[in-house]
Amino acid sequence: MTVADTKKYEVTILLPAFNEEGVIGTTIQRIRELYPEYEILVVDDGSTDQTMAEAMAAGANVWPHPYNIGNGAAIKSGLRCARGEWVVMMDADGQHQPEDIARLLAHRDRFDMVVGARTRQSETRAHRDLANWLYNKFASYVTKFKIEDLTSGFRLVRVSVAKQFLYLLPNTFSYPSTLTMAYLRSGRSVKYIPIQTRARVGKSKIKLLRDGTRFFLIITKIATLFSPFRVFLPISFSLFTTGVCYYAYTFFTQGRFTNMSALLFNTSVIIFMIGLVAEQVSQMRYDRTE
Known about the structure:
Layout: E1 9-17, H1 24-34, E2 39-44, H2 51-57, E3 61-64, H3 71-81, E4 84-89, H4 101-105, E5 113-118, H5 126-143, E6 155-158, H6 159-162, H7 175-185, E7 190-195, H8 208-226, H9 229-254, H10 259-289
Parallel strand pairs: 1-2, 1-4, 2-3, 5-7
Antiparallel strand pairs: 4-6, 5-6
Helix pairs in contact: 5-8, 7-8, 9-10
């Protein structure tokens, strides 16, 4: 453990890092120049290079993981160790600009979470932009709130509030999606501000197929956890409508009600009832935790 002081801060700037020795020192120096009164906390997620040494040399507090657990796990460790009342989460790879931290903090008195939403001018790849657009649309439907950047890792939260959702956060890169949907489901306010990011320094650790599939599965899981009826109801309605159409077709062409129509009707009712029960269970969970 290298976080030794007990001094309290107004703001902690949290940087999860894994093998970022080439940029972590510069990033910390830029933050220190702009915000010398804030705590800079680096969670070294089991790096095999000199990331921890570079971070400590630049003046950051460092909490090391004994081995690589995941980006989400680093965020959770950081939230547990943070000395500040507010935490700004940002990438350590040079994508996020320290100058934008002040823009997040400007909204802290009115919103529970402030998120930097990447604009089209950001240096991002087309396939990731498409994937993020799909994630944003699906999450916006589930939460009934316009989500502008579901997977952005640049965000401001109050530590005491964020800790309530630690048990929900995965150990992977999907933690921003989970945290955003958890806040919205619990009635917390979220604010998006436009930011322009740069291309990361070094090779990305996110794999399109592996992590893209994982993101979608986690978003679906979180959707069914927080707002299950928004997922189950369309499926039930689709099956019921298909059953009606198939029954009409077989009635006019064969003059009978088929087993397939009965199966579709029964399945739609079962899924509807599962969604109804899941919605009640979800509400009971929040009644107990609030």
